[in-house]
Amino acid sequence: MKIRPAKQEDINVLLKFEQELIKFERPFDPTLKKGVISYYDISKRIEDENSYVLLVESDNEIVGSGFADIVKSKPFLKHDYFISLGFFYVKENYRSKGVNKLILNGLIKWSKNRGLSEVRLSVYDKNINAKSAYLNYGFEPNLLEMKLKI
Question: What is the dotted CATH code of the domain comprising 2-137?
Answer without folding.
Answer: 3.40.630.30
